[in-house]
């Protein structure tokens, strides 16, 4: 039933494109505007998924199997990954869905991300990556370390995120937000035109993330959503022709790409867009660093920061923290800092 | 009242927003800033930024496949 991966990926890619769900943006906003709106949406996915995952575990549908915490590689890799996603202009899923929107810069980022993931997992960089990941502490999950049931932690997380969401829902801007004029009605308007709210999008993604666990499990791939492993597997398959590496996750990431393309095409948001020289170089460098960073950290913004966090793994939460710090460093350097010089467009008086 | 155009086509997010923020700082009160952009995410980020800062949006539309324009008045 590998095809369930394709179906889930289609839904995920579609939702992320229509909802403009961008984890890089969520982390970056903290450093540019100080806004926590998208971070809250991201945490809604973690909190809701947490309830679902521990319920599935309790019901015996899945069995969570904690691994020793590779703290050094996680800290290092997460910082590199957080830094790299600013250069690449999107995290792993963000890059997949922007590739589906026709951004050629994201095609470059995606190719180098997959290539360097494969190099780090099974290729030229596998030795050092494995050595760094060999530095572990026996602690694995927060509740395991504390010797308590995960449910109190789930309750704390859900309450905290709920309060944060309530705070954002109560915020009122001085002016109402402008929207694009409607051109269609009914289902077509809802799917391809209407603006999807950040929190609604988060709830849909959370449902898909929960569903990913039993669907993936049923095919023998015992984990939830993940992007880096499958991306690396695609490279391995393409260069070695070994069909054994094609698993549920490979169908998932291909689904994300196609789902985002359908969403973008259907809403008039697909166009092949060629980046300038600077953006191209940054996309390539960012993609390569993303591959190394995610392999070191044991996951990307999805596998670690969104899924492993939901199981209260140390790897997930430490990753989330260091990814945000890495994003901040790159934002200061490349967006709000001096390296931005040379990209600024001219401000010209309009012909009236 | 003067109108100014900021062409950000080809720039990925968050650059359209960062550039718009810089550009509007250089305008006089009542002036309008026309921002042309082709980064999908900015269809959310730019109108939200305008609303949160109390800048009226006088025009917001699609001008082609994955191309948009928004006019924001400095107030």
From TrEMBL, chain A:
It is a multi-pass membrane protein. GO terms for cellular component: plasma membrane. It is found in: Cell inner membrane. InterPro entries: Sulf_transp_TsuA/YedE. The chain crosses the membrane at residues 38-62, 69-90, 96-116, 151-169, 196-215, 245-264, 284-306, 312-335. Keywords: Cell inner membrane, Cell membrane, Membrane, Transmembrane, Transmembrane helix, Transport. This is YeeE/YedE family protein. It comes from Cryobacterium cheniae.
From TrEMBL, chain B:
Gene3D superfamilies: TusA-like domain. It comes from the Bacteria. Residues 6-30 form the UPF0033 domain. Coiled coil: none annotated. Belongs to the sulfur carrier protein TusA family. This is Oxidoreductase. The lineage of its organism: Bacteria, Bacillati, Actinomycetota, Actinomycetes, Micrococcales.
